[in-house]
């Protein structure tokens, strides 16, 4: 897929230089699946994987073999460190014109439960638990039909005023595109204004699955994968690091997943501003796709492991405990992941689709999970700088 | 030959000699010493443990089949004198919420089990102050006469308690129970088979030697039993290994002299909610998988290892099938005890088939004795 947006690489302090994987030392005895042998050989030789390698990974049932390959890459990138952040989620509105098939969070303006927080209300929420040193606020909402750009700027300013120490990681490329269209403005200009109002990083949501066929069924009104990548490239160029996600476990094929990862890898080669990749296991409850079975542990770990190996230019792979469950997220630290996300405090979106995980985790619990898995807990800030004493 | 395991691979050449030797012993399928098992449990790489346990699983069970049993946990009473600190299910005699199932309720539950294709009931209760061997035998005879089904019933602490109530030696008590219809004994009440730990978490329950004595007698009399371990409460890692060592030793004896033996080992993690040990940090999924894998390697005379979806959920239960387990246990049409401590995982027969199939296994229903149905 050649739709990576071409942007000249610029060097900003928060967008770090790309590092690929060094030649890996693979414990070959753990690789049971013969289809993974050529992949192991390439990794041992320090060569980048291609799409057929990606497909071999994405279709393997060799749980331990996948883990052994991904763990070697994880060790090379992040050693025994496992990151977490003391963060909070803030969903400013659920009123959305996109109405994606996989979403249980959106409402129409006239629906019961539809809301849009005023900047004062958002500031009150952000200042809850005043004693807690929150490092990052994850601020995402919806494509609201009426709110002007000034709303979002005011939202950021109001939150920044009450949480000056917290990094504002706000708005997916989908929301950025929506704001720009509402104002008849270029997305680049929107990003610059948001940056001035306090935005320092962007989450990776809205990527869903790039492949046009499933994307047309899942989220026909959402921006294309190409557009999503273009907006990330613009953000990276402005020195705004972003994350990237992939929603899997619905109607996509293994080929679609591999294409998605390669599109991200190609974009990262060009613009370099992706910090973490976060695979998102689909939760079907309360959505129009509710007949779909939940993902299995094999599938979840296979996606984590494959992404660690394919995305050789991404610094971090996140095991998002809200969607994986606490237990599997912990296990995933041995299958390529090096980040558990964070305390979150109150997660809304996945829980509206029936997630049975708790809505938040204590910092103590996160550290225990990491240590019990044999890793070193590192409390991080939004940019993966260690906050350990 | 250089081992291909990651813990002893080139990148970790400086690895501890004891770990290296333990890994090599496990790789060759040698009988592990308690010291080697402890080293593996404490130090080995998670993926190495999975790889080794998976290989051991196929030595014991060469077919790519994962088994499960369709049954129901019937708890005849929750009234219990034991007062275990890890339990959220029991009520002391006279307390509110205590119950005893009536014969009608019991019969209805069995009929429902049979209607769903069930092959056994797992029937346990509490250490009730008035229900002894004779009363239990009457219940068994009622079941066998009116609702015939395999009774996988009681546990060593219940047998010990009931025999004491009726002033009967254990040997005679087991004879009476078998005569009345007891078909096999689940391995509950083992907790940790070290009296220091039992004194802390289950002071009212029979001692470790008593637990083992009941199982030894049962095996001699031709009953098959299982063995469990509840870990992650107040025991140390060496005490977990001691638990395994006592089971392996008894199994060795039963296999050579007895007519019955242990069919399966079932480790699970302590669930602290609503118990007197609520402040204990629960064991994590990685600790569960490590323990399961080491058990598969150390218990080389146990044919089967069960995954505990009840305490771990469907995802970790599926992973357990790559870490030494070959059985998903029961579909548990009903489960009360773990649910009382806050775990509410469910796993249907269809889900078991899907999870096993995803890893390339065929899921097959079995009976109590691991014969395919």
Fold topology:
The complex is a heterodimer of chains A (389) and B (373).
Chain A: H1 37-44, H2 51-58, H3 63-78, E1 81-85, E2 87-91, H4 119-126, E3 136-140, H5 149-162, E4 167-170, H6 173-183, H7 187-197, E5 199-201, H8 212-218, H9 225-237, E6 242-248, H10 254-271, E7 274-281, H11 297-310, E8 316-317, H12 321-324, H13 326-332, E9 339-342, H14 349-352, H15 363-372, E10 376-379
Parallel strand pairs in A: 1-9, 1-10, 2-3, 3-4, 4-5, 6-7, 7-8
Chain B: H1 17-28, H2 34-43, H3 46-60, E1 65-69, E2 71-75, H4 103-115, E3 120-124, H5 133-146, E4 150-153, H6 156-165, H7 170-180, E5 182-185, H8 195-201, H9 208-220, E6 224-231, H10 237-257, E7 262-269, H11 285-298, E8 304-305, H12 309-320, E9 327-330, H13 337-340, H14 349-358, E10 362-366
Parallel strand pairs in B: 1-9, 1-10, 2-3, 3-4, 4-5, 5-6, 6-7, 7-8
Explain what this protein looks like in three dimensions.
The complex is a heterodimer of chains A (389) and B (373). Chain A has 389 residues and is an alpha/beta fold. Chain A has 2 domains: 28-73, no CATH class; 81-379, TIM Barrel, CATH 3.20.20.70. In chain A, 39% of the residues lie in helices and 12% in strands. In chain A, strands 2-3-4-5 form a 4-stranded parallel sheet. In chain A, strands 9-1-10 form a 3-stranded parallel sheet, with helices on one face. Chain A is globular, with a radius of gyration of 20 Å. Chain B has 373 residues and is α/β, with parallel strands linked by helices. Chain B has one domain: TIM Barrel (Alpha-Beta Barrel), CATH 3.20.20. Helices cover 45% and strands 13% of the residues of chain B. In chain B, helix 5 links the parallel strand 3 (120-124) and strand 4. In chain B, helix 3 (46-60) crosses helix 11 and helix 4 (103-115) crosses helix 5. The chains are: A alpha/beta (389), B alpha/beta (373). The A-B interface holds A 25, 27-30, 61, 63-64, 67-68, 71-72, 75, 293-294, 296-301, 324-328, 330-331, 333-334, 368-369, 372-374 and B 3-6, 9-11, 45-48, 50-51, 54, 281, 283-287, 289, 312-316, 318-319, 322, 354-355, 358-360.
């Amino acid at each position: 897929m050649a739709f990576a947006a071409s942007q000249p690489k610029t060097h900003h302090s928060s967008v770090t230089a790309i590092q690929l994987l060094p030649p890996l030392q693979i414990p070959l005895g753990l690789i049971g699946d013969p289809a993974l042998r050529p992949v192991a050989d390439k990794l041992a030789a320090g060569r980048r994987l291609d799409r057929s390698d990606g497909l071999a990974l994405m279709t393997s049932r060799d749980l331990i073999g996948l883990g052994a390959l991904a763990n070697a890459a994880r060790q090379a990138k992040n050693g025994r460190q496992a990151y977490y952040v003391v963060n909070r989620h803030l969903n400013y509105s659920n009123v959305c014109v996109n109405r994606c098939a996989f979403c249980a969070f959106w409402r129409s303006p006239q629906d019961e439960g539809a809301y849009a927080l005023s900047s004062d209300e958002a500031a009150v929420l952000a200042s809850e638990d005043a004693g807690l040193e929150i490092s990052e606020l994850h601020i995402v909402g919806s494509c609201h039909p009426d709110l002007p750009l000034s709303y979002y700027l005011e939202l950021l300013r109001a939150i920044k005023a009450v949480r000056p120490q917290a990094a504002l990681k706000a708005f997916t490329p989908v929301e950025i595109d929506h704001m720009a269209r509402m104002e008849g403005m270029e997305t680049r200009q929107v990003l610059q204004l948001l940056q001035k109002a306090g935005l320092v990083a962007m989450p990776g949501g809205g990527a869903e699955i790039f492949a046009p066929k499933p994307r047309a069924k899942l989220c026909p009104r959402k921006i294309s994968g190409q557009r999503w990548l273009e907006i990330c490239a613009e953000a990276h160029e402005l020195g705004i690091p972003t994350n990237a996600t992939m929603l899997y476990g619905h109607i996509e094929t293994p080929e679609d997943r591999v294409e998605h990862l390669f599109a991200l890898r190609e974009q990262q080669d060009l613009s370099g501003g992706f910090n973490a990749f976060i695979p998102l296991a689909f939760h079907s409850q309360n959505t129009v796709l509710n007949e779909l079975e939940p993902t299995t542990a094999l599938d979840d770990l296979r996606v984590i492991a494959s992404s660690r190996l394919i995305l050789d230019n991404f610094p971090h792979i996140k095991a998002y405990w809200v969607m994986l469950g606490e237990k599997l997220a912990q296990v995933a630290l041995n299958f390529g992941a090096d980040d558990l996300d964070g305390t979150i405090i109150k997660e809304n979106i996945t829980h509206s689709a029936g997630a049975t995980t708790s809505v938040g985790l204590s910092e103590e619990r996160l550290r225990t999970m990491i240590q019990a898995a044999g890793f070193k807990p590192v409390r991080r800030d939004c940019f993966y700088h260690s906050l350990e004493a | 030959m250089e081992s291909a395991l990651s813990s002893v691979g080139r990148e970790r050449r400086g690895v501890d000699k004891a770990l290296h030797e333990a890994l090599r012993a496990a790789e060759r399928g040698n009988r592990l010493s308690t010291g080697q098992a402890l080293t593996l449990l404490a130090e080995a790489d998670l993926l190495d443990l999975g790889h080794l346990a998976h290989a051991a699983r196929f030595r014991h069970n060469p077919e790519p089949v994962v088994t499960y049993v369709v049954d129901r946990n019937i708890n005849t009473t929750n009234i219990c004198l034991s007062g275990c600190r890890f339990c959220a299910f029991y009520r002391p005699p006279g307390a509110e919420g205590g119950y005893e199932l009536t014969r009608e309720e019991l019969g209805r539950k069995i009929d429902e089990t049979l209607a769903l294709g069930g092959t056994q009931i797992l029937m346990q209760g509490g250490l009730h102050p008035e229900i002894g061997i004779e009363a239990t035998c009457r219940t068994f005879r009622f079941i066998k006469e009116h609702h015939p089904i395999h009774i996988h019933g009681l546990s060593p602490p219940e047998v010990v308690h009931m025999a004491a109530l009726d002033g009967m030696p254990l040997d005679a008590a087991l004879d009476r129970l078998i005569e009345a219809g007891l078909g096999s004994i689940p391995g509950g009440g083992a907790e940790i088979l070290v009296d220091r730990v039992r004194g802390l978490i289950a002071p009212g329950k029979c001692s470790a030697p008593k637990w083992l004595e009941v199982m030894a007698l049962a095996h001699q009399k031709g009953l098959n039993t299982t063995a469990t371990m509840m870990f992650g409460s107040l025991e140390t890692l060496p005490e977990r290994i001691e638990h395994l060592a006592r089971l392996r030793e008894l199994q060795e004896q039963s296999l050579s002299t007895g007519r019955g033996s242990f069919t399966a080992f079932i480790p699970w993690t302590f669930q602290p909610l609503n118990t007197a040990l609520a402040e204990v940090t629960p064991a994590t999924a990685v600790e569960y998988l490590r323990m399961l894998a080491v058990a598969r390697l150390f218990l080389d005379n146990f044919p089967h290892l069960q995954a505990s979806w009840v305490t771990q959920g469907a995802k970790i239960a599926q992973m357990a099938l790559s870490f030494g387990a070959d059985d998903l246990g029961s579909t548990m049409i009903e489960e009360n005890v773990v649910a009382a401590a806050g775990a509410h995982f469910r796993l249907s027969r269809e889900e078991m088939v899907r999870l096993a199939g995803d890893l390339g296994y065929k899921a097959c229903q079995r009976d109590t004795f691991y014969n395919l149905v």
